[in-house]
Amino acid sequence: MNPFPTNDNVSVSRPLPAWLRPWPVAGLIVLLWLGLFLVRLAAPPDFVDSDHQEREAAYVLDVLANGHWVFQQNQTGELSGKLPLFTWLSAGFSCLFSGGRLTVLSLYLPSALSVLGVMLLLWHSGRRRLGVWAGLFAALFFLVSPAGSKMIFLARKDVLFTFTVTLAMLAAYRAWERGGSAWLGFWLAGVLASFAKWPIGVVLGALGLIAFYFDRLPAAAPKSDAAEIGTGARSGWWFAAGLILFLILFGGWCWLAWQQWGETLHDRLISNELADTVQSQPGRSRGLLSECYKPGLYLVSRFLPWSLLGLWGAWRAWFRPDVDPGRRRFTRFLAVAVVLGALGFSLSPHTRPDLLFPLMPPLALLAGLEAARLLRPELRVRLTVAGLAIAVAALLGGSFWYHHLSEPRKDRNVIRTRGVAEIQRQLVARYGAKPPELIYTDCALALQIFRNTLQQNVKLADAAARLAGDNPVLVVTKDAGELRRLLPPGAAVEEIIPWPEAKSKEKNFLCVLTNRPAAAAVKAP
User: Fold this and answer.
1) Which secondary structure element, helix H or strand E, spans residue 40, and what is its range?
2) What does the alpha-carbon distance between residue 36 and residue 400 come to, in Å, rounded to a whole number?
3) SS3 per-residue string spanning 157-197
4) Omega of the bond prior to 408 within 30 degrees of 0, cis?
């Protein structure tokens, strides 16, 4: 007799192995995640201009160096276009693990933990609602995909947003089933999703609830009690209480941010960020529907091959519904969330593959169910063990080869970041802990990351004026030639730290100039 209840359509003729109990599987998920994360963490860093991850680093530095906890700006003076939950977490990890200094670990840990959180949510919800095998496959599919392996080491808000939207989505379904105080849980998850990126997270989390109305139609056979689940006056009161709590928390943050930044906050979040989301950006000659196919292609391609199984599962949820009311309800909830979410992104002119991340967890659950249906019970253990071994070998081996053996030799961001680290080493060797005032022009953020500061960039003309003055200064720039042309005749300026690799093609990327002779090297203690 099967010791674990399963919802799989195919009856299981033999007991599930002991390692398929909830905690052993959770342990396996954690070990697989940890191995991939540690391999990537040990690779050379690539802070410089790497997929806009330097922006997130700048916001964290603004918290650590300048104390701007409510809302942050980067080194150019531009406010963040998204809400700051990622920044808060990264800054908190920096304070907890490294004494208030931003490190590679504290920068990437929020995203890595978000991936782990999604996998555990998929395992937990899939096991309870679709069956043990469906939950296991869903969790593994999410990580063993092009998007999942990218998310685990990506310092962008999209990954944290994916976890919080998944949490809100599952909380919404739980509220649909149980009603009452479960609606409060949905709104609390909605608060996290909103602070992870934008209040659109509440909409994405609740999209699947539209399946409630479809399940009431006479064509939804066999008829179930879905129309009565989660409804009633008691649920209405809890729903209203959760909404009020959401408005208080979100509104309170808006008030604090307004007190700090005033009209600049409105211009950045509403006039710029929201406008770019709902209308074509200046200089782009394309209409609203001219590239509406891209989000769908992004969703399918970034989650191959499991996206094909997931789309088949979405089709089955409507045209070949499950006879079990609970499983039918859940699969339709997931299918509606995926389809309507993809349609919503298709109508927006702002298309980017990472925006589709929140739709991949429900797609993984549908794919996991279809994989469990396709595999015969007697083959599941063998194929799962073999597949897990192959996945571990492919993920860890491929990641190690790419990030340690192949990519660091030719990746421009890795080379530049290594060079900036050498510049920082030379600064410390020359000046010790207290160098003259450093001024940054329009250059990469990496040096400020290594120095754990966030100073606003200055214009080249202002930097030239400071170099021509009497006070000793150091100017960090990537355009030393233009800076010299702006100096008055006879100004004594010395380039003390050029790009470390004189023969490198990147030798003009960054240099340090001063209006005082270079200091003698400080002997290491």
Assistant:
1) helix 22-41
2) 9
3) HHHHHHHHHHHHHHHHHHHHHHCCCHHHHHHHHHHHHHHHC
4) no
The contacts of residue 58 (CB under 8 Å, 6+ apart) are: 72, 73, 74, 75, 445, 448, 454
- CA-to-CA separations, 197 to 162, 282, 454, 483, in angstroms, rounded: 10, 23, 22, 38
Virtual torsion, Cα 234, 238, 239, 240, nearest 10 deg: 110
Report yes or no: 341 and 358 within 8 Å, Cβ to Cβ. yes
pLDDT at 156 over 60: yes
β pairing state of 494-497 and 437-440: unpaired
Of residues 112, 138, 111, the one with CA closest to residue 123 = 138
Rounded CA gap, 501 and 257, in Å?
44
**Token pair of 38, please?**
């540690």
Nearest one of 373, 360, 343, 369 to 307, comparing CA atoms: 360
Query: Dihedral sign, CA of 78, 82, 84, 87?
Result: negative
Give the percent of the chain with pLDDT over 90: 32
In 392-478, DSSP assigns E strands to 437-440, 473-477
DSSP letter, residue 473? E
The predicted model scores a pTM of 0.87
Taking the CA atoms of 460, 465, 466 and 472 in sequence, report the sign of the dihedral they define.
positive
State how far the Cα of 183 lies from the Cα of 245, in Å rounded to an integer: 11
* Rg of the Cα atoms in the chain: 26
Query: Considering only CA atoms, which of 474, 509, 469, 470 is closest in space to residue 495?
Result: 474
Is-contact 198 393, C-beta < 8 A? no
Residue 282's pLDDT band (cuts 50, 70, 90): very low
What residue spans define the domains of the chain?
A: 29-266+388-402, 413-514
Q: Which residue has the higher pLDDT, 239 or 224?
A: 239
Q: What is the pLDDT of residues 5-60, one digit of tens each?
A: 444 444 444 566 666 788 888 998 999 899 888 888 888 877 665 557 888 899 99
β-strands 437-440, 473-477 pairing = parallel
Triad 67, 69, 72: Cα angle to 5°: 90
